[in-house]
Amino acid sequence: MTSLTQITLEVTDLAAAESFYAASGLGAHVRLRTAAADVPSEGFRGFTVSLTVPRPADVRALVEAATAAGGTALKPAAKSFWGYGGVVSAPDGTIWKFASSEKKECGPATGLVERVVVLLGTSDMTATKEFYVAHGLTVARSFGRKYVEFAAPEGAVTLALYPRRALAKDAGVPADGGGAHRVALGGGTARFTDPDGFSWEPETEAPARAQARTAGV
Hints:
21% of the residues lie in helices and 35% in strands. It has 217 residues and is an alpha+beta fold. Strands 5-6-7-4-8-11-10-9 form an eight-stranded mixed β-sheet. β5 and β6 (84-89) form a beta hairpin. α1 (14-24) packs antiparallel against α2 (56-68). The chain is globular and about 45 Å long.
């Protein structure tokens, strides 16, 4: 495995999730399938999906579209130390962060997404980093036990690691949670589970399942 190529969200109400992701415009970035009914999931699921966009107006447009479609704003669009951002929880519980490095208004929304980043909350940054390196990923940036980002080729999703409690704080939610993560990550040709319980599957596996769909298609 050399990169993360797809994100499959496991949802309890597939029809409702399809409606949200189509209406919000976020469906282009994820696939959906029905979650196992006998596997509970509570509280923070330990990951977020982040969209990096060019301008503050793009952040506002994404937050407005997601909340209008039924999402809940966890952090309204606003300036921050790093730029401009906002956080929304989808009805299925997935946390979406929209961010721009620009703080000043620099024109209308472009509708462009520069990067899609999946941030995994980890209990042991060093162990998880070493696990992914052993599975073929290359570290692009690393700040000790605070943040790790892996290289991603053009068109792939960026995978990054963050301490679980710090990731929950960044998302604006309590760090408590347990049960299924309700996400499957796709890339490479093998199935495996990382030290924090995140499952990976071959990138061609999810679309082949009858219950897996690309939202909005």
